[in-house]
Amino acid sequence: MKLKRIVAGLATMSALGMGVFFSLQQEAKASSWNHETPAALRGKWETKPYKIGIEYDDGRKGWGQTAYIYHITKHYIAGSQLQTDYIPGKVIKTNSSGRYYHIHSYSSIGGGYHMKNKIKRLSKNKILIQTGNRNRAFYRVRHFHNIAKALS
Predict the structure, then answer these.
(1) In angstroms, rounded to a whole number, what is the distance separating the alpha carbons of residues 91 and 35?
(2) Which CB contacts under 8 angstroms, 24+ apart, belong to 119-125?
(3) How many structural domains comprise the chain?
(4) What is the pLDDT of residue 108?
(5) Residue 135: inside a domain, yes or no?
(6) Which of 22, 36, 92, 121 is the most exposed place for a label (fewest CB within 10 A)?
(7) What pLDDT is recorded for position 143?
(8) Cα(21)–Cα(31) distance, rounded to whole angstroms?
(9) pLDDT tens-digit profile of 6-32?
């Protein structure tokens, strides 16, 4: 009777050990790459207006107001600071991991170059995109506002 319990216990333990061993051998994919932008990110995005220094043609200096914009469609992503060059890029591949999205795109403007955007979705109407050396909060808008203006 005791021998049957030992044999049954050993058989159960070896089966569990084999199951754990084979389950660890499989690769776990955290995300997969796609070729179009997720629907949650599509639309027009704009930062809140902020002040910038302006130097006029006659040498005077003053303050102005501007904002960053991003326009994200199914196959294109474009961004700029208002009243600067609007650079569109064709989406090559995207992936998501939790709230983070990585969008790789290619622009043929200026000899062509690859762009990588790391976007964090905070809510339905707010995302973070790294512009320059900092993350900026972008808000969903219906249309872009013409807020590039001189304050002084």
Answers:
(1) 7
(2) 119/41, 121/40, 121/41, 124/40
(3) 1
(4) 85
(5) yes
(6) 22
(7) 87
(8) 23
(9) 666 666 666 665 555 555 555 445 557
Q: Phi and psi for 73 in degrees, rounded to 5?
A: -115, -175
The amino acid present at 59, given as its one-letter code, is G
Q: Is residue 18 part of a domain?
A: no
The residue written with tokens 């690769």 in the block is: 27
Strand partners of residue 139: 46, 126
Low-confidence residues of the chain, pLDDT below 50?
A: 27-28
Strand arrangement, sheet containing 50-55: 50-55, 61-66, 149-150
Q: What is the pLDDT of residues 42-54, one digit of tens each?
A: 999 999 988 888 8
For residue 15, the SS3 value is helix
Question: According to the 3-state scheme, what is the secondary structure of 138-149?
Answer: EEEECCCCCCCE
* Domain-embedded: residue 105: yes
**Residue 4 lies inside a defined structural domain of this protein:** no
CATH number at residue 49: 2.40.128
> CA 48, CA 29: separation in Å to the nearest integer?
37
By residue range, what is the domain housing residue 102?
A: 39-150
Residue 140, C-beta contacts closer than 8 angstroms, at least 6 positions apart: 43, 44, 45, 124, 125, 126
- With 0-12 / 13-18 / 19 or more C-beta atoms within 10 angstroms meaning exposed / middle / buried, residue 72 is buried
